[in-house]
Write a structure and sequence with these properties.
With 163 residues, the protein is an alpha/beta fold. The protein folds into 2 domains: 43 residues, Membrane-bound Lytic Murein Transglycosylase D, Chain A, CATH 3.10.350.10; 112 residues, L,D-transpeptidase catalytic domain-like (Beta Barrel). An 8-stranded mixed beta sheet has the order 5-4-3-12-7-8-9-11, covered by helices on one side. It has a two-stranded antiparallel ribbon with strand order 1-2. It is globular.
């Protein structure tokens, strides 16, 4: 997959966001020094497919507290979600799913889908009464059965658009 460098990003922060190593990004891009990074630069992120080859897209409406799964431009299903509270808002932007962890434990429920923004993801919950509310620390919470269904459909590299 290709990442476009944004102002303020470093190779280290990009590596963290995509859960890969700095050396892997340097090697994939034939770069010898992190000092050669500049905004607008296109970087190959190893290990993730090109999102344009994936028929799925996840659209998240923070205000409606709704996650919509789209395949080839057609809505497949919509799910109720919980989002971040005011002091820890869910970050708007365009991300991809970079990895997943079944049964992460605690408040993360039955599945964790990491987003390409470190510390953020789509996950289940141990508090189903929180769904439909703005109560998380910025992550997207789903009912456990819903996040398991979603994880069974979408591959890593799936675009996630949060608005």
């Amino acid at each position: 997959m290709i990442h476009t460098v944004k102002q303020g990003e470093s190779l280290s922060s990009i590596a963290l966001d995509y859960r890969t190593s700095l050396s892997a990004i340097l090697a994939a891009n034939n770069i010898s020094s992190a000092a050669l990074l500049y905004p607008g630069q296109k970087l190959m992120i190893p290990g993730l497919p090109d999102p344009s080859t994936i028929p799925y897209q996840i659209l998240i409406s923070i205000s409606a507290k709704r996650l919509t799964l789209v395949k080839n431009g057609q809505v497949i299903k919509a799910y109720p979600i919980a989002v971040g509270r005011m002091v820890s808002a869910t970050p708007a932007g365009d991300y991809v799913i970079v990895n997943r962890e079944p049964n992460p434990g605690g408040p993360f429920g039955a599945m964790w889908l990491s987003l390409s923004k470190i510390h953020y993801g789509i996950h289940g919950t141990n508090d189903p009464s929180s769904i439909g509310k703005a109560v998380s620390k910025g992550c997207i919470r789903m009912f456990n059965q819903d996040v398991l269904e979603l994880a069974g459909i979408v591959p890593n590299g799936t675009p996630v658009l949060i608005r």
